[in-house]
Amino acid sequence: MDQNLKARQFAALHIKGNPIRLYNSWDAGSAKAIAAAGAAAIATSSWAVAAAQGYRDGEDLPLAAAIDIIGRVVSAVDVPVTADFEGGYSDDNDVLSENISRLLETGVVGINFEDRVVKGSGLYDLARQAKRIAAIRNAASKKGIELFINARTDLFFEHFNDPDGFVDEAIERASAYAAAGASSLFVPGLVDDKLIERLVKEAALPINVMVMNGVSPVKRLAELGVARISFGNIAYADSMKALEDAAKAIYEG
User: Fold this and answer.
1) Which of 15, 37, 145, 153 is most buried, by CB atoms within 10 Å?
2) pLDDT digits (tens, 9 = 90+) for 182-219
């Protein structure tokens, strides 16, 4: 299927009240298994991709290796693929644009792009991050690709114990990110139903929630109007535990 057809197909899966569920993969084999289970799209988890190669999350996995793995995932499945691209592997907008251009050559149709300063501390301010998103949108447009940009804000990871105090900023960031070319807003770390519902109603972008301790079940998130649900590194962690348990049964039996 044409890359843009897949991009449009992927975008159409983001429906408030009927969210796309993304059980994140880490390599071609896991992606094939998830697709065979009926997934409408495949997403990677940067944490899981890095861990599977012996690296820590946070762009420690070399860029070339990350792009190669994503390319293998795309080649392994027929459904659309969105990649967790962390902070784009650069603080410089020109280099960021080049990295996005390289990534798009894999056939990927979506990315996660976060506002955390990956190799520093804290978050990029709203204006700076909006420019970074605009650079990504421009790079994709130059290649004629309708890239789905899932703009991740780490506000609720940074302020996990005071989420109420940062919903207004999340709404402001959603508006700025949307104007810059983002397609949805990813809010990992936000677990409170009332705050999620407020974001759904007031943010300028569809909302993506990550499954973690304290987050309501999928059915409830759908009722709140969430458009996308991600499972992060859960599939990887569960698979590695199952592998360890199976190995123990052999070696301790």
Assistant:
1) 153
2) 999 999 999 999 999 999 999 999 999 999 999 999 99
129, 182 contact by CB (below 8 A): no
In contact, 15 and 156? CB cutoff 8 Å: no
If you average pLDDT over residues 222-251, what whole number do you get? 98
Gap between the Cα atoms of 6 and 78, Å rounded: 9
